[in-house]
Amino acid sequence: MLRAAIYARYSSDNQRHESIETQFRICEDYCRQKGYGVVAHYQDEAKTGTTSIGRDGFHRMLSDARRDIFDVLVVYTLDRTARQELDYYLYKKELQAAGIKYEYATESFDPSSVDGQFFEGIQVAQAAWYSRKLSVKVRDGKDTNARQFLFPGGTPPLGYDATPDHHYIINETEAAAVRLIFKMFIAGSGYGPIIDELNRQGFRTKRGKMFGKNSLHEILANEKYCGTYVHRRSYGKQRRNQTAASGTPNAIPAIISQETFMEAARRRELNRGRSASYAAKAVYLLSGKVCCGECGHSYNGNSMSSRGYRYEFYQCCDQTNHGSRTCKNPRIKKSWLERHVVDAILKMFTLDRINAVVDKALAKYQATAAAAPDETAQLYRQKAGAEKRLANLYKMVENGAADEFDLERMRDIKNQIRAINEKIAAAGSQPKISINREQIKRYWYKLVAELKMQNRPELIRPVLQKIVNKVMVYPDRVVVSIGNVAGISGHNGNGLALPLNPLLEINIDRKAA
Asked: 464 and 284 in contact (C-beta within 8 Å)?
């Protein structure tokens, strides 16, 4: 019995999930008539067939085809897999290369025959023609809506709703949030305080979520709020192909005045210029290493300017993205944190202390190496178990007791055995690496010497990245984990990353920060 997979898709938000169910039902009836066993269903809802981008169900189907999960792909109609000629034949070729047959539940031709391939070519071209024709009609419909200043569909911007006849109307509850955003921004407030105030007053986004930085950016740049209807801003798949936007003032109800919007635009342009003037000047030595001890989010490098002075600090990204609504762990000054981390490392690796650190590193490595199972022996045990399961399935086939699911298991086990054999071959070609006390000591001496010698941030940063595993920031202390020893070489020169994390921890009192 052949194993069949069914793929279903519909392309419009105006269609419903029942479209998927109908396609599944008809394809299942087809499989019963052909004597196929259905082993998998894949679906994509409200996804266009003109591209495979975003079609997760389609890509899962292709992945499973490569893993020999099914033998034949059944679809409702030819255009369910692709509506572009090139895409259709490329995907069909990929499935055929994996040994998968293509069949259609509602088409009358056999795609494996010469005549069937002729009719298939006609229908592929027809599906592509229909898709392009539909795109023109949709674009024309949007042009018509734009001339009448109608809502094009989807989700209206915050502050607006759409009437049944597609006209914009103001949602006064949401409009209050929009006015607050513009008022605070023009008054000089940054995104963080605005987000805090919105969430404090109980305002939510159009999707019912708390506000974030991206929400504010889109609102402050949306000309609709001052009554300007903008058409065709996002046409074209790449920015260079976009059609120039055309805006019509006073075309829809305004939530803010034109003057307010222009003042906010001026402020955004001013902020953009300031950001560009500071770009690439600050080097955050501990970038990617600092985490919040309260909520677990990363502490990212950030900066702000006030009265001509620039403040640089590390701050919990939960605050920078959503304001201070959740994490209350305060930001920490960049210069203070980096200076104390470097000083603590240099104090830890003085001549009188480095021997103790090296001894600890060596002991930890030896304990880890002794406890680690022999990888090759473990792989051979896995292979023996897989071969035993395969032999049992062969007996079932010989006795006539196997069904399509047992045959599928046989294919999976064969793939497992092949993968194990590849790992065994790879493990056998790698020489065993060992290190000794002197190698660890030289490694640490070299890193600490580099840290002492460098005086430029861009040269200090890569050294710290090698030494430091993680910096956990708590309200009252900072804990620095040391032990990243990737780069130590074994006796044959091969690089070795030791599982010594953390080798040791350094506690720094934060009260003076």
From this structure: no
For residue 221, which of 267, 167, 252, 175 has the smallest C-alpha distance?
A: 267
Q: Which residues contact 61 (CB under 8 A, 6 or more apart)?
A: 5, 7, 40, 42, 73
5 C-beta neighbours (distance < 10 Å), count:
24
Write out the DSSP string of 194-206. HHHHHHHTT---T
Is-contact 494 470, C-beta < 8 A? no
Neighbour-count burial of 454, counting CB atoms closer than 10 A to its CB (0-12 exposed, 13-18 middle, 19+ buried): middle
More confident residue, 129 or 316: 316
Tokens 């020169």 -> residue: 493
Give CA–CA dist 1/397, Å, rounded.
Answer: 13
Taking 3-state DSSP, the helix, strand and coil percentages for the chain, each rounded to the nearest 5, stand at 50, 15, 35
Instruction: Tell me the DSSP string of 43-103.
Output: EESS--SS--TT-HHHHHHHHHHHTT--SEEEESSGGGT-SSHHHHHHHHHHHHHTT-EEE
Is residue 345 within 8 A of residue 506, CB to CB? The reply is yes
Q: Which two tokens stand for residue 87?
A: 């895409």
* pLDDT tens digits, 432-491: 556 677 877 787 778 778 887 777 787 888 888 888 888 999 999 999 888 654 444 443
Closest CA to 10 of 21, 22, 25, 20: 20
Which pLDDT value is given to residue 181?
93
Angle between helices 258-278 and 172-186 (to 10 degrees): 50
Structure tokens at 355: 């021997």
| β-strand pairing of 3-9 with 37-44 | parallel
489 - beta bridge partners?
495
For residue 95, give the amino acid letter: L
Q: What is the dihedral of CA 274, 280, 286, 291, to 10 degrees?
A: 40
Closest CA to 109 of 98, 117, 97: 117
Q: Is 197 exposed, middle or buried (0-12, 13-18, 19+ CB in 10 A)?
A: middle
The pairing of beta strand 101-104 with beta strand 299-306: unpaired
Q: What is the pLDDT of residues 250-282, one digit of tens each?
A: 888 999 998 999 888 888 877 765 554 444 467
- Which phi and psi angles does 48 have, rounded to 5°? -70, 150
Question: CA 329, CA 333: separation in Å to the nearest integer?
Answer: 13
Euclidean distance between CA atoms 316 and 405, whole angstroms: 50
What 186-194 contacts at long range (C-beta under 8 Å, 24+ apart), as own/partner pairs, is 186/260, 186/263, 186/264, 186/267, 190/304, 191/216, 191/217, 191/323, 192/319, 192/320, 192/323, 192/324, 193/323, 194/323
What's the rounded Cα separation, in Å, for the pair 288 and 294? 17
